[in-house]
Amino acid sequence: MGKSYDRGEKLGKVYEMMNKLLLPFARGLGRSRGILESYYKRDVKPLTILKDPVKRVITLIIELPATKRLVQYHIYVSTQESCPIYPKQLEPKLRKLFSEAVKYNAQSDRGYYIICPVGYTRGAKEEIKKKHVYPATSAEEVLRNIAKYFKNRFVGLINALRGKRLFGELALLVWILQEILKQLKSYIEKEVKPIFKSEIEVTHAALGSGITL
Fold first, then answer.
1. Which domain does 53 fall in, by range?
2. Which tens digits make up the pLDDT trace of 148-176?
3. CA distance 75 to 96
4. Against a cut of 0.85, is the pTM above it?
5. pLDDT digits (tens, 9 = 90+) for 44-73
6. Can you give 119-187 as a three-state secondary structure string?
7. Are strands 70-77 and 211-212 parallel, antiparallel or unpaired?
8. Spatial distance between the Cα atoms of 28 and 121, rounded to a whole number of angstroms
9. Residues 25/47, Cβ–Cβ less than 8 Å
10. Cβ atoms within 10 Å of 185's Cβ, excluding its own
11. Number of domains in the chain
């Protein structure tokens, strides 16, 4: 009974962590789905969420307009509480992470994360980084790192478009990036100024002659 309860409690913590990770994207991209479908005249799925609480891996696949490259995040959630993760404990955790990631090998920008609330020994952290995996201690830390990626992408895109007409798929891309950042604003040191103030405004820009930045 004790072991069964402990396993259920740990599984509950995994679900809780996974929900923290996916909620900002479900909100931001869910709101954008109608706009995308109006533009493309078909069903679209800007966000795919794949959760495997048994393997403790969550995968987020984000499809953005105006680019063929997906954005994918693969995150392993550890409930280890006794001590920081040390090198010998890493192999099965990373194997689960990469075994899920390899299923989705489309052209994409990828981020790999492992979350362990009690942290890592120095040796384990070095091994994780060698595998190009980000060692985090909370869902919030992962979201801060992801927010930095989207902020840099948004700012870089806006700077590249200054003085040019913004319309069509690029208008949709700007809208979706700003909607994601809106949901991640608590993880960003300095908020970015949105380009579009409403769904009506971005719809007019995408379907019409656009706006000049």
1. 2-212
2. 999 999 999 999 999 999 999 999 999 99
3. 10
4. yes
5. 999 999 998 888 999 999 999 999 899 999
6. CECHHHHHHHHHCCCEEECCHHHHHHHHHHHHHHHHHHHHHHHCCCEECHHHHHHHHHHHHHHHHCHHH
7. unpaired
8. 36
9. yes
10. 12
11. 1
